[in-house]
Amino acid sequence: MELMLAKRYDDGKEETVAEHMRCTADVAFDQYERLPQGVKNMMPSREFCVFCAAIHDIGKASPIFQAHIKYGKGHNKPQHWMISYKILIDSGFDETICQFVAVHHGNLPESKILNAIRGRAYNDECGSESEEYALVQAELLNFAIRISGIDLSSRRRGGDPFHRQTN
């Protein structure tokens, strides 16, 4: 599979999704102590902040975004933040975490949009039906978990702020 691009700059340089994840995670780690206490209070830990920074653009590893950034094709809908939300919700993450990541462009998504994303409306565009894209997205998700240092072992015991409870 080709490299997944996150950004293409005017000077021709390109940044992959994994490179972008690493850069944003590093900035979040370095800047965490500078955050206002009110913002820190919304986050369970520095690791949570780093994880959300790393994972915010995972939706760029999707067929629709790759066609848009590489070839100028398509309408880029659903947008990458919507796909990030879908990847996380499909991976079992809590709704709050998924919305927290999706809002990184400034607006809380409307519930009708979120309902469509939770359904099968955008599976082809998101890569949900593609074994290759699903594998890449899973690898990127694991990469974000690894570089953030989150301990997800409590997921099996319950009480984990990162995953929905499955009783």
What does this structure look like?
By secondary structure, the chain is mainly alpha-helical. The protein has one domain (5-152): Hypothetical protein af1432. The chain has helices spanning 17-31, 37-41, 46-55, 63-71, 80-90, 95-102, 111-118, 123-126, 131-148, and strands at 5-8, 14-16. A two-stranded antiparallel ribbon has the order 1-2. Strand 1 and strand 2 (14-16) form a beta hairpin. The protein is globular and about 40 Å long.
List keywords for this structure.
167 residues, mainly alpha, Hypothetical protein af1432, 2 strands
Strand sequence of the main sheet, in spatial order? 1-2
Overall 3D form: globular
Report helical residue fraction.
40-55%
> What name is given to the CATH topology?
Hypothetical protein af1432
Give the CATH class: Mainly Alpha
Give the DSSP E fraction (strand runs of 2 or more residues): under 5%
Mean pLDDT: 84
Distance between the termini: 37 Å
- What is the ordering of alpha helices and beta strands? EEHHHHHHHHH
Assigned CATH architecture: Orthogonal Bundle
Q: What's the gyration radius in Å?
A: 16 Å
Describe the main β-sheet briefly. Answer: 2 strands, antiparallel
Oligomer: single chain
The number of helical segments is 9
Model regions low in confidence, pLDDT < 50 over at least 5 residues: 155-159, 163-167
Q: What's the number of structural domains?
A: 1
Question: In terms of structural class, how would the helical and strand content be classed?
Answer: mainly alpha
Based on DSSP secondary structure assignment, what is the total number of beta strands? 2
